[in-house]
Each structure stands twice: as C-alpha cells, then as structure tokens.
Amino acid sequence: MGPAAWLAEPPELSPEDADRAGFYGVLANLMAAPPSEALLAALAGADRLQADPAVPEGEALATAWAQLCDAAGQCEGERVRSEWNALFCGTGRPLVLPYASFYETGFLMEKPLARVRDDLAALGLAREAGCGEPEDHLAALCDAMRALISEGRGIDVQTPFFKRHLQPWIGPCCTDLMAATDAQFYRAVGAFTAAFFAVEARALSFET
Fold it and tell me: Is 44 in contact with 65 (CB distance < 8 Å)?
C-alpha cells in the first residue's frame, strides 16, 4: 500500500503502536511471499514479549511469538520457501486461500474485494505497482493496517477497517493454516496470526 499523499513526514508513534505496526508488517511479509533468509534470521533473533498474566490474550500472544521465533531459527530457508509454495501456490487449488472474498462468500474476487477497494481509495491508499494479488489478500490487508498505524491515523479509522475487512474471516483462515497438512513453519505463523488478532480485537474494542 502506498502512503497517503497528505502525509508530510511520519508521526512519532507510541511504543505500543510501533509494535503493532511491526507485527502487521511481519505478517504482510510472511503472507505475501516466501520469507527471505534475512527475515527468518531477524525473527529467530527477535526479543521475546513480556506478557501481563492478567490478560490471557497477551499471554497467548507472547507464547505464539516465541514459538514463531523458535520455528524461524529451526527451519531451513529453502524448506520454508517450498512450504510457502505448497500452501499458497500449489497445483490446482492451493491448500490455503487467504482472501476475504473466499472466506466471506466462498468465491474469489467478490463483493468483499470491492468493499476493500472502495475503503482504500477513500483512505488514500492504493495497491503498489506490480503487485499481482488483489487487495483483499491477507498480506495486503495487514499492510494496509500497518500503513494506517504508521501514518498516525486514529483508532477511529483503524477500528472500522479492522472490523470490516479482517475480523470477520481471520479466525477460520488461521484455523485452515494451522491444520494444513504441509504446514510446519506456517503452522506457527497461523498460531501467531490468530493470537495477534485476538489482542487487536480486544484492544480496539476497548478503544471504541
């Protein structure tokens, strides 16, 4: 997604929002293409999260993040790239179709995609040139959320986008990813995605 034209320079983010934007960016990269060696190494060496025991969603996120980082350190890059291709680009129908249209209607390129395009246009965001995936792909939606946070758009903008375009279908998508027979590293990605979105849903519901 491209930055909004009105943005002169990036705002200073709170540590919490910087972390949120970072996690959305990681998910966008992991879903958009096979992860590079550099990304796997960065995940393997990333700091673990400190969770508040009073917040179950936070504890689940910390556990899922640690498992994802451990998986990144234990997997060979070529094997992870083969796994990505098997899951998302297999011959015939891929094992996992991470599109809002598919999970909400059972078909690709349906009304959820049109709604995403309308909302992105209204927000001044657009698909990057050369991107082959439609805007309702999970990677694109995560990147849109990253952009909204990084550009300092308020919770009043982030929350409707999240609830309209991600929350309705992300749970079943994560379940499919974790259950896919060819998933090993991406089983950890699915678990982390589910845990992260649970925290997002809790936080954004408190903010509105």
Answer: no
The CA angle 37-126-150, to the nearest 5 degrees, is 65
The structure tokens listed for 191 are 């678990």
> H or E stretch including 138?
helix 138-150
3-class DSSP assignment, residue 135: coil
What tokens were used for 195?
A: 């845990």
**What's the pTM?**
0.92
Residue 133 contacts residue 88 (beta carbons within 8 Å): no
* DSSP of 46-106: PPPPPPPTT-HHHHHHHHHHHHHHHHHHHS-HHHHHHHHHHHHS-SSS-S---BHHHHHHS
Condensed to tens digits (0 to 9), the pLDDT of residues 37-69 reads 999 999 999 999 998 888 899 999 999 999 999
In the chain, the largest separation of any two C-alpha atoms, in whole Å, equals 46
